[in-house]
């Protein structure tokens, strides 16, 4: 199962795989294949990851507390294209909700 499937979020573009894992590998590879210490490279990678996670979590909590992150159930069932733009995104697209399970 690829990372992101079934964890309350879905990554259709594979951003964690491409930017996260490959970025970590590129940074650590400098320590492996050059005169730089691998431990310094690992420390830098972990430091940046901790900062990015903390800053993102604080920003998400701030947005959630001020304007909210989720839409209403009615907007979700109607579709955000209709709720926000007043028209459907695709003329022949009619979603079905038979297989959807609520997220708890």
What is the helix content?
A: 55-70%
Structural class: mainly alpha
End-to-end Cα distance, whole Å, is 21 Å
Shape: elongated
Tally of individual helices: 4
> Could you name the ranges where pLDDT drops below 50 across 5 or more consecutive residues?
none
Q: How many DSSP E strands?
A: 0
Order of SSEs: HHHH
Report the biggest beta sheet as strand number plus sense, adding barrel if it closes: none
Approximately how much beta-strand content do the residues carry?
under 5%
Radius of gyration: 20 Å
Q: Round the mean pLDDT to the nearest integer and report it.
A: 80
Characteristic terms for this protein:
104 residues, mainly alpha, 58% helix, 0% strand
Describe this structure in words.
By secondary structure, the chain is an all-alpha fold. The chain has a domain of about 70 residues. Helices cover about 60% and strands about 0% of the residues. It has four helices and no strands. The longest helix has 29 residues.
Topology of helices and strands:
Elements: H1 15-33, H2 38-66, H3 73-78, H4 80-85
Helix pairs in contact: 1-2
Task: Summarize this entry quickly.
This protein has 104 residues and is mostly helical. It has helices spanning 15-33, 38-66, 73-78, 80-85.
């Amino acid at each position: 199962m690829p990372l992101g499937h079934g964890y309350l979020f879905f990554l259709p573009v594979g951003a964690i795989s491409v930017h996260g894992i490959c970025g970590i590998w590129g940074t650590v590879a400098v320590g492996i294949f050059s005169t730089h210490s691998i431990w310094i490279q690992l420390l830098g990678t972990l430091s940046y990851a901790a900062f990015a996670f903390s800053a993102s979590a604080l920003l998400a909590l701030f947005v959630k507390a001020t304007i909210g992150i989720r839409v209403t159930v009615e907007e979700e069932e109607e579709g955000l294209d209709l709720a926000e733009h007043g028209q459907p995104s695709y003329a022949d697209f009619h979603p079905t909700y038979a297989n959807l399970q609520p997220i708890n």
